[in-house]
Amino acid sequence: MNEVKCPKCNSLMEEGFLLDRGTEHILYQSHWVPGTAEKSFWAGLNIKNRKQKGIVVFRCTDCGFLEFYAPE
């Protein structure tokens, strides 16, 4: 993506991502999953057969506003 401006204050935004922590201190990028959350007894949530997309987050360098994207 090109230069991104904040929709709240029009300042520059910087690209980043949400950090998820797995077991044994393993680090992961958060993902977007289509549909509603369905509980799973063994895995916490059932996401079987759902295509996941990494979440990209832009943060305003001035006001701190966050804008989330799940690009193809």
Structural commentary:
- With 72 residues, this protein is mainly β.
- The protein has strands spanning 4-5, 12-17, 19-21, 27-29, 31-32, 39-40, 44-45, 53-54, 56-60, 66-69.
- It has a four-stranded antiparallel β-sheet with strand order 1-2-9-10, with no helix packed on it.
- The chain is elongated.
Largest sheet: 4 strands, antiparallel
Order of strands in the sheet with most strands:
1-2-9-10
Structural class: mainly beta
Q: Radius of gyration in whole Å, from Cα? A: 15 Å
Order of helices and strands: EEEEEEEEEE
Summarize model confidence as the mean pLDDT.
91
Number of strands: 10
What is the subunit organization of this protein? single chain
The N- and C-terminal alpha carbons lie at a distance of 12 Å
Please name the defining characteristics of this protein.
72 residues; two-stranded antiparallel ribbon; mainly beta; 4-stranded antiparallel sheet
Helix-strand blueprint:
Layout: E1 4-5, E2 12-17, E3 19-21, E4 27-29, E5 31-32, E6 39-40, E7 44-45, E8 53-54, E9 56-60, E10 66-69
Antiparallel strand pairs: 1-2, 2-9, 3-4, 5-8, 6-7, 9-10
Q: Gist?
A:
This protein has 72 residues and is mainly β. It has strands spanning 4-5, 12-17, 19-21, 27-29, 31-32, 39-40, 44-45, 53-54, 56-60, 66-69. The strands form four sheets. It has a four-stranded antiparallel beta sheet, with no helix packed on it.
